[in-house]
Design brief:
Blueprint (H helix, E strand, L loop, with lengths): L2 H7 L38 H29 L4 H30 L5 H12 L6 H24 L9 H16 L3 H9 L5 H33 L4 H13 L4 H4 L1 H6 L13 H14 L8
Helix pairs in contact: 2-3, 2-4, 2-5, 2-8, 3-6, 3-7, 5-6, 5-7, 5-8, 6-12
Length: 299
Amino acid sequence: MNIHSSLQAEPETIDTPTPKDHQITPRDRRFGRDEGHQPGRWWLNNDPVATAFYNALSLTFPRGEAFFIESVKAFRDVTPEKLQKEIRAFVKQEIIHTREHVALNRRVEEAGYDTSRIEQRVIESLEMTKGRPAIANLGATMILEHFTAIMAQQFIANPQHFAKADKETADLWRWHALEEIEHKGVAYDTWLYATRDWSRWQRWKVKSLLMLVITRNFWTNRYSDTLDLLAQDGFTGFRTNMTLLRFLLVTPGVARKIIVPWIKFFLPGFHPWNEDDRHLIDLAESEFSAALPDGTQTA
């Protein structure tokens, strides 16, 4: 099926649970740029495991978000006007996220870590997407955007994730999280529009298979990447693996706490905005505002 021909022939809108009054606002913020900012090697509560996990995750973002941008942009100009505007805002947010994670990743390297193996794994993963149909890459983006959104919910709702962390680095993650929640429906709505002439069964089957494959790859790679960084600090073996599993599954347990939102993805009628969690955006925004001397927002 020629997706683009179909889209050009039928530019009608589709009805989704995305709030009609919802706005996506790129926030051009910078973190950790002060000359005297020294977060330390283990910037998260002096915990090498927690720090390694978030550093490993950050190292995937610059190339990963470039992939998300291109996957969604491939359908932008043939979608309804409202969705086009949302895609443009999504792209702007992701570009700024990339810039800030490039800066964070530079600090990881300056702390003495060799990130080349992790970066090579990301490159190899993305190489596999070249030559695939645009709809396949959009599907992968839609899946990974759901991952980032449900993790973002945890990062804002549960202060335990960044307790006693370097403030600038923790603020970066919370800022990134609030914008992931804000644009969590864009890739999914683009996917729904691009596949609107598919049967519900076909759409469910494809997205479910993609979710299972990507879930396996996501956690396998993030686990390996975290162990890579931990090994550079001299932490290896059974005890290190158990400590990492405890971090992911027990306390603070980010992997465990996203299991239910992950399962909901497979339910008939699923949509990211079936859960309106804009209060988390407001919560994170209010925290940023309160931290500024004059109570104003940065632009």
